[in-house]
Amino acid sequence: MAPEPGVSIVIDRLIVADLQALKSADIGDVAQATYAHREDRHAFFLLETGTIHLELDFQEYHLQAPALVYVHPDQVHRIFSFSQLTVSTLGMTTEQLQPQYRPLLAALVPAKALALNPEDFALLADTMALCARFAARRRDQLAHALLHDSCNALVALVLSQYLPQVPAPGKLARSEVLTQAFRELLEHQYPTTKRPSDYAQQLHVSTPYLNECVKAVTGHPVSYAIQQRVLLEAKRLLYHSAQSVKEIATALGYVDYPYFARLFAKGTGMTALAFRRTRLD
Length: 281
What we know:
This protein is α+β, with helices and mostly antiparallel strands. It folds into two domains: 5-165, Jelly Rolls; 170-280, Orthogonal Bundle (Arc Repressor Mutant, subunit A). It contains twelve helices and six strands. Helix 4 runs antiparallel to helix 5 and helix 9 (222-240) crosses helix 11 (257-268). It is globular and about 55 Å long. Residues 1-6 have low confidence and may be disordered.
């Protein structure tokens, strides 16, 4: 059974002067945004007025309205400060997204915030407002269908803003197509699959050829991409979870904890515990 609309699709609009006003307001979990966290859904933020300083996967952004931000469920983020903020948000679980939109959104990660021109902002704001109106009509016979379809239309509009940054499939070179396929496999298999040869076998190419293609596109070999994806997840978990370093190592497929500790230190220049302390200070 599909999740209830109120759980799987969430629309909200927040108007707040600054961080102090947010912390003192009784708005439930909103104050948690100031701490490193993950969403349990795809999140789309339309910044209508004001400015905001936030961190997304360890990259800081200073945004001014009007702007658009997409956050994937895997990404860790937090808010440092904002001023005279008005922001509309849409949160959708993966199951509620149209299937054809899911790989397009995955290809955007890590998506950067976009500045919007007045025409595009007005269209997105109007569509977001329409979605909110449908969300309020819970007694309609087709209430969930209206909400589901209108929110997916909004996601399509968001994608239309981001997709000009992504080359069309027909324009990709063979090396780019293969690298994209490798990245899709890596995103799902990095906790369990660490050898380049295993990815090459699944993609029906030789390991040297996969290495050649990935290096031509990214500048780094397959082994580096695997290591960096593991380290990114390790940093995310160190930042926002209460798991011990040993538990994180196990979750990422490393039964040899000392090996993971050395891998993390070599890849980041500091121990896992030192990284956690620097992020929490």
